[in-house]
Amino acid sequence: MNRQLDGRIVIATHNPGKLAEMRELLEPYGITADSASALGLAEPEETGKTFAANARIKALAAAKATGLPAFADDSGLVVEALGGEPGIYSARWAGPDKDFRGAMNRIQTLLIERNARTPEQRRAHFIAALCLAWPDGHVEDFEGRVDGVAVWPPRGTQGFGYDPLFLPDGFNRTFGEMDADEKHGLPPRGKGLSHRARAFVKLAQACLRRG
Question: Which pLDDT score, from 0 to 100, does residue 83 have?
């Protein structure tokens, strides 16, 4: 039996792009969300070997620090020709200054070094692991994935992170060219396309009731 969530929670992120997406996803369910950054919480060291493990670390740290349920995401871009990199190190590839343009240049350089030039050679996917954690240590885990291609040059200024590099299967626009509703809006506003939206749908079905 999944534990139901209501009332106030902490979104365990210091990333403003992720915070905006999570708040938009939670809004229809009447959930009031504070961010870890607004509450002055330190970012825990992400020592997990998987997206799910790192999401748990962040959610549990925020829940125990605040005494409130916490919602955390760990997500990243997995490029098949690079052996799964940057993967769980996606944010770290951008460095402390969050230089995702530099990180995308690095991906492109590595792909060219591997002679990965065609769409078939540049397969990639985004993964999002979501974790809900309570102060007593109870957790609920969910994961979403969307497949596509790492394009070059990056296209679009919407979204954040690696969005301009990623073209989802079945679409002719990158995540960086899509508005919020098209990328991660849930029905009726959107189709729940993004990895984070797909994981959130599973979480909502298990743990949320519409407000």
Answer: 97
